[in-house]
Amino acid sequence: MIRAEAEDPRAARTRARLRAALLAECAERPLEEVGVAALVRRAGVGRATFYVHYPDLEALAVDACADVVREAVEALHAWQGRPDPVRAPAALAEFFASLTPHAPLYRTLLAPGGGGPLGRVLHRDLRAYSLRERERAGAADAPLVASAVAATFAGVLADWLHGDLGGSPGEIADQVWQLLVALHASR
Predict the structure, then answer these.
(1) How far apart are CA 13 and CA 9, in angstroms?
(2) Are residues 137 and 87 in the same domain?
(3) pLDDT digits (tens, 9 = 90+) for 43-101
(4) How far is CA 52 from the centre of its chain?
């Protein structure tokens, strides 16, 4: 994510306009067919302004989709007390369902197996969160389990978006949840 001018409200508004314009463009055509000229016209900013904030369309797309990373991390940790080992928290199923409107864009940025630019952001952020939680709990295997959780979730999410895994949002949420609970239970 590009955050160089996070304190400048004008820059934040401009990036928000560019992100919204990109999502609107990608609702009409694949990212590969979106041009900077059409994007800046829709956003109401100049071409030079675009390049002040982003080096290319992929960087903007990752930034526009980065909320999905925050939402994924929140959904995976939306439980209190002892987690149900079979049923995912409702927030996780809701997260999977929320991906539908921009699924083609997510598929472009999240390669099968969990790679790609959005996959790297998802893996980094989810691993960092899981590592903090595992270390806070005093788990000796914190780095290993944090990496496994991040890789498992990113891989399952990507493969589901690409159609390599079947199931409704609720079914895939339960399935990935069971895998993650098993990882956390391993010693």
Answers:
(1) 6
(2) yes
(3) 999 999 999 999 999 999 999 888 777 888 787 777 666 778 889 888 889 999 998 88
(4) 24
Number of domains in the chain: 2
Q: pLDDT digits over 115-146, tens only?
A: 999 999 999 999 999 899 889 888 888 999 99
Is residue 169 within 8 A of residue 92, CB to CB? The reply is: no
Q: Which residue has the tokens 């864009």?
A: 105
Q: How far is CA 142 from its chain centroid?
A: 22
Nearest to residue 123, comparing CAs of 150, 105, 148, 98?
Answer: 150
- Whole-angstrom distance, CA of residue 35 vs CA of residue 24: 13
Tens of pLDDT along 5-56?
Answer: 456 899 999 999 999 999 899 888 899 999 999 999 999 999 999 999 999 9
pLDDT value at position 80? 67
Instruction: Based on the fold, state whether residues 51 and 70 are members of the same structural domain.
Output: no
What are the tokens at 93? 């199923």
Q: Which domain holds residue 122?
A: 65-185
Under the phi-then-psi rule, with left for phi > 0, alpha for psi from -120 to 50, and beta for the rest, what region is 81? left
Q: Are residues 69 and 45 in the same domain?
A: no
Tokens of 157: 């999410």
Same domain, 51 and 69: no
Q: Which token pair is 64? A: 């526009």
Same domain? For 136 and 44 the reply is no
Is residue 60 domain-resident? Answer: no
